Amino acid sequence: MRRTLMICLASFMAFTAGITYAVEAEGVLPHPNAALFGLHEAPITVIEPLRSTPMKPVEVTYKGYPVVPVLDTLLGNAWRTPGSILGFEAADGYLSMIPAERFLQYPAYLVYGRADGDDFSVELPPLNHRVTLGPWYLVWDNVIHQSLQADGATYWPYQVTKVGLIDAPSKAKLFPPMLPERYKRGAELTEKYCLACHQVNGVGGRRLPIDLGQWAANQSFARFATWVLDPSGKNPLTTMPALASERPASERQLMARQIYGYLRAVGALGK
């Protein structure tokens, strides 16, 4: 099978349309087909977070491939190094940055269609416009591993076209050496919930690439919390999801404070 695959083993800058992170290795995913890299297709049933509510979970069975052998083919063994971060880049500039150890802990799949042949798309708020999930959609086995349901759609990027291994200098931009260790948790939460669309020190997605450290420097915590905990309350037409909406209110408040503290601290270093 002819593989439209590009592997860059030397570190290089990914300049595509404003993305400014760097990668140690990157793989362009080929067009979906029934024999990806010679792997065996496997159905996977999930509680679909883009369709479900806490009171009404929706099961969907997709067809695709276990992601670990795909990563091995695209990136070699480098992605398995402790502390590695993988970037799943979507066609619209969304960048899901996922700790590599998560893929060794929980089963994940790159899927390209529904097993029942139904439309491979979903309606998204606030206007319920329909978007395609392809060419590739990263899903997790949250049926067997039910604890994953608490993360909702976090780490479920769709329209994925590329996978990269974020390099050490880019990771250092997110947590500079002079930043106190007490901000570590805030940095982890920012990476998980915010950098798919936004950036810190030039690292992150490009859907709305504002520098969050600079932005937070001019925000009170009350204003910041309003935006991240209830973005649709500030702007009914926003597509920004509320921070960790599946979790208890007290936990969400704490998470918002940790993110705010980190952003203010990392932003101050850049002045």
Structural class: alpha+beta
Indicate the radius of gyration in whole angstroms.
18 Å
Counted up, domains total 2
Adjacency order of strands in the biggest sheet: 1-2-11-5-6
Strand content: 15-25%
Q: Report the sheet with the most strands, covering strand number, pairing sense and barrel closure.
A: 5 strands, antiparallel
Helices and strands, in order, run as: EEEEHEEHEEEEEHHEEHHHH
Which residues form runs of ≥5 with pLDDT under 50?
A: 1-20
Mean pLDDT: 88
Query: Which outline best applies?
Result: globular
How far is the first residue's CA from the last residue's CA?
52 Å
The residue fraction in helices comes out at 25-40%
User: How many strand units?
Assistant: 13
Number of helices: 8
List the helices and strands and how they pair.
Layout: E1 12-13, E2 22-28, E3 42-47, E4 59-66, H1 67-75, E5 85-90, E6 95-99, H2 100-105, E7 108-114, E8 121-124, E9 129-132, E10 137-140, E11 160-166, H3 168-174, H4 184-193, E12 199-200, E13 203-204, H5 212-216, H6 221-229, H7 231-234, H8 249-269
Antiparallel strand pairs: 1-2, 2-11, 3-4, 4-7, 5-6, 5-11, 7-10, 8-9, 12-13
Helix pairs in contact: 4-8, 6-8
How is this structure best described in words?
This protein has 271 residues and is of the alpha+beta class. The chain has 2 domains: 12-166, no CATH class; 176-269, Immunoglobulin-like (Sandwich). It is built from 8 helices and 13 strands. It has helices at 67-75, 100-105, 168-174, 184-193, 212-216, 221-229, 231-234, 249-269; strands spanning 12-13, 22-28, 42-47, 59-66, 85-90, 95-99, 108-114, 121-124, 129-132, 137-140, 160-166, 199-200, 203-204. The strands form 4 sheets. The chain has a 5-stranded antiparallel β-sheet. Strands 3-4-7-10 form a 4-stranded antiparallel β-sheet. Helix 6 (221-229) crosses helix 8. It is globular and about 50 Å long.
